[in-house]
Write the structure tokens for this entry.
Amino acid sequence: MKIFMFKYYFAVFIVIVIYLLNIHIVPANKASAGEGGGDIIFSDTKKQRQVLFSHEGHQEAGNKCGDCHPQIFQQKKGSSDEGNALTMKSMRGGKFCGACHNGKDAFKVMSSCKKCHFVAR
Ligand code: HEC
Ligand code: HEC
Ligand code: HEC
């Protein structure tokens, strides 16, 4: 009986701690959201719709600036597609978006096209 009560209080304690942590974590995320690179539209997509990359969405998914900059992407709009390097083929090979969109860390680059290509011209 005593052990049961201890477990009960411990569970309540953990729930309260998680609740309190959230209160502090959420405003911190929101505060940094405005300091990222904003929304980026990729339009070199042939007949497909354009692609929207959301910095805010990626931060909310837990990515930090250093997960992408400067190894995968430079902090300069359009730099990845210099020399037409940003293609589905290069991403399938694990470059650019494909570094994470591999079906393990995030949805696969060759999954539903509409997940990325949804911005009308
Ligand atoms: C999941 C990957 C990812 C993360 C995480 C990320 N970025 Fe970016 N960032 C990009 C991509 C993609 C571009 C566009 C590169 C291109 O067009 O070739 C970009 C471009 C930028 C740019 C240039 C924007 C412009 O209009 O030229 C800035 C500034 C930037 N990022 C800052 C940040 C900061 C600050 C953070 C962290 C708060 C961050 N980024 C996190 C992927 C990321
Ligand atoms: C550092 C890893 C990383 C890179 C690089 C990356 N993503 Fe993501 N992306 C994620 C994660 C993690 C999620 C959330 C999990 C999921 O949806 O599978 C996500 C979610 C998304 C989503 C759905 C949610 C949202 O924010 O809109 C889109 C669309 C997306 N990514 C597009 C892209 C594009 C386009 C690129 C390249 C320009 C890119 N991502 C590069 C990790 C990454
Ligand atoms: C993870 C996000 C993502 C997904 C999913 C995705 N794409 Fe893309 N796609 C991109 C990005 C980013 C570009 C580069 C656009 C640019 O350079 O401006 C691109 C470019 C393209 C291009 C032009 C360049 C090339 O490789 O010929 C075509 C065509 C294309 N995508 C087709 C597709 C098709 C078909 C699917 C579904 C099977 C798909 N894409 C799924 C992000 C994605």
Q: What stands out?
A: Residues 23-33 have pLDDT under 50 and may be disordered. The longest strand covers residues 50-54.
